[in-house]
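Dear support,

I submitted the protein below through the web form. The confirmation email said the job was done, but the results page showed an empty box. After a refresh the structure appeared. I'm attaching both so you can tell me whether what I see now is the final result or a partial one.
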Amino acid sequence: MAQRVGFIFYTGAGLVALAFLILYTVPINSARLFEKRLFAFLIDLTLLGLTTITIVGLLYQTRVLRPCAVVSLGILWTWFLLFVLSDWSFGTTPGQRLLGLRLRTTNGDRVSFQRCLLRELLLLIIPVILLYPLQLTLITRPFAMWSAEFAVLALFPLSIAFIGGQSLPDLVLKTAVLPSRSPADDNSSTVPWLNWMLLAIAVTIVGLLFAFAITTETKFMFLEKVAPPPAMIVQIQGEDEATLAAGLWRFLYGQSPEMGFDLQDISVVSIIHELPPITTELPTSAACSDLLATTESYRIVRAQISPQSAALSELMLIENFTQFFELDNKPTVAVFELSKRETYGLFNLDRSEDYFFCRTSSDEKPKNPLLGYNSSLSINGSMDRSAFLLVGRLDLYSTIEKVPIWLH
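What the results page shows now:
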């Protein structure tokens, strides 16, 4: 075990040191342009995300649209077209304008619509599509595939730092993103071979470092049978959990068949860790308080429902789960997570309510098994889902996100 940790530590430290040495070879002007373009892109994504949540979220709430794979695909292509039209019409994006950048040809002319279209395809769409073959081995993905995925994602951004402040698509299409007051010929079209070699090394290092970070923990826990640290949350989703989820689905659906449209998915996960804090606690028995304080493992039942579900449907689900929970007399604590997912293509907005239940022996059964509840809001992004959408695998996207493919 010590030898394994030492190998990974020294290898990782060596890669980090090599990365810092390579950074010293990057000209200061290219580094600054790289930073500006990166921040400009993040600003653009933030503005697009907020606008999408406002407009599409309103359409979700008013039931004009429903979260589905087709809507997510439409959002992705709408974002793409907005980037193209912004570059073509204004020669800049909102983020680039805020940071004083503009897009021009290397001759200083305005970039044509066809060139803007091809440029955004190369920058935004092609790298994500190239990830699709790697996503097919998502569950058993080896280290080399993790490394290749991150290297592909890092290639175009890092090329800005190593080839004179411009990305590979800019070099191919003879375009340039430069400060507004700089002449277009400020960027040299000749890239030394050393820069290409450093770019290749840098991309490889990024892929290796991120792959190490993701796979090391898994190898320690599962391949080498090392016990997890006390602070680590271990999640188990095996055959027993799948059987329980199937039975719970039949119970909830059988109790309230009219909720078949609202209920999208049910899963059960066993957690080896103490319970999270309960923000809103309800009065309970002393037995439940003692059980809550000593619980080191429990199960989460995750029920995903349509964001357009009525409040009555949610109450019926909670009531049905309460009845299911009270069928057994074995003392335990469980969490019923009721979540609503709004899909927006590149990211999801998840609204969750966690209800904590306690079950003691029959002699000490509390009048109300509900201990309390928490509410949370989270935003989750994923390139994997985007790759499925862009190659037309709406079925895979639907399966993973637990949303329908079509609007109706």
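Response: this is the final, complete result; the empty box was a page-load delay. Confidence is low (pLDDT under 50) at residues 1-7, 217-230.
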